[in-house]
Amino acid sequence: MGKPKVAIHSITGCAGCQLTIYFIEDVLLDLLSKIDLVAAPMIQEKNSKGPYDVTFLEGSVSSQEDLLRVKELREKSKVLVALGTCSSYGNIQSTLSYHKNQKDIPKGIYKTTSHLKSVESSSVDKHVKVDYYIPGCPPDKTEIATFIKDLLLGKTPKAYSKPVCFICNLKENICLLDVGKECLGPVVNGACGALCPSNNHACTGCRGPLDDLNYAAHKEIAKSKGVSGELFKQRIIKYAPKKFEELVKKL
After folding, report:
1. Mean pLDDT, range 12-37, rounded to an integer
2. C or N: which end of the chain has fewer Cβ atoms within 10 Å?
3. β-pairing, 5-10 with 77-83?
C-alpha cells in the first residue's frame, strides 16, 4: 500500500490540538516520511480537498458552517478521528447551554450578531460517525504519536480505560481529595498520566468521563471531604457536560 493520505482539519476551537501534533518534535519528522499529509491548512499553503484515508478533526460543532463541514469531512474520510475534548465531548463551548443568560453572551462579544448562525455546541459524534477519539485539552502528544504508529502498523488503536486515580497510585501521589480539593480523578480517563494531580492541581476532567464511572459515590466522597456541591457541579460540566449527563442517566 502507498502512504496513507492524512488530513488535519478544524472547526470551532482554539487550534491547540493541532499544535500538539506539530509539536511532537521527536517523532514528527519520522512520521511525515511514512504518511502523505495532504491537508493541514494551519501549516500548509496548498491542501487537498479529499478524499482522505485518515482525518484528524478538532473543534466542536457550534455553527451551521461547522455542521456542514463535519458532514463533508465524514463523507471524504475513511477514518475520522475526534481530536481533543471539543471534538470528543463539546468542551467548554457546550457549557454555555447551562448559562442562564446564554442568549445574551454573543451580544457581549460582537458589535452585531445578525451574521451569526450558531447552533448549540456539541461533540462531532452527535452528527456523524466517529471512528476513534483522542480526548484532552490539549490531547497528549505521546498518545497521538502512538495512535498514528498503530494505524501505520495495521493495528486497531485501543482506547485507554483506566481512571486518573490509577496513575496517581502508581506514582504514589498524595490523594488531593484527602486534602479537600475537588479532584475528579476517580471518574475521569487517565491517559494524561495524571499530569495535573502530579503537580498538586486537582483534575478538572479535560479528558472526559469513564464509561463505567461511579458518579454518585464520587459525589458523596467529595462532599465528605468538604467539597461543596456547587463547586463539584462546576467541575463536572466544565469539559464534557453532555457526556456526563448521558452516562449518569444510565446508572
Report:
1. 86
2. N
3. unpaired
